[in-house]
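Next comes one such specimen:
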Amino acid sequence: MTTQPSKQLETFDNAMPERDYTIHIETPEFTCLCPKTGQPDFATIKIDYVPDLKCVELKAYKLYLWTYRNEGAFHEKVTNQILDDLVAICDPRFMRITGVFNVRGGVYTTVVAEHRKAGWVAPTPVQLP
């Protein structure tokens, strides 16, 4: 295999830093291991963010998520860790990570973690008639 998992996240310059706009990324094949049983946990990881000067590069992001495949991680911890790592590399105006974990033992888990850059105010949505 020429491609391997990597914790090395990358960015690229935001082509429109003067504008607030939202980037949505959805990854339906996230896996990690239950730290109690070692069994695999499956989830969809959703990212919604308003970039500032940098955007998340998607191939590096995909390889980053792959690193969790063999790691034990509670749903709450892994969702917050992904947020912390992405905020550290791209310093967005706003970022929300939603981890929608598949059912295990009859229990569904969804974890939502957010970051807001100091001083950033969300634009008012336009309401059309």
Notes: The first strand starts at residue 11 and ends at 13. The helical segments are 58-66, 75-90.
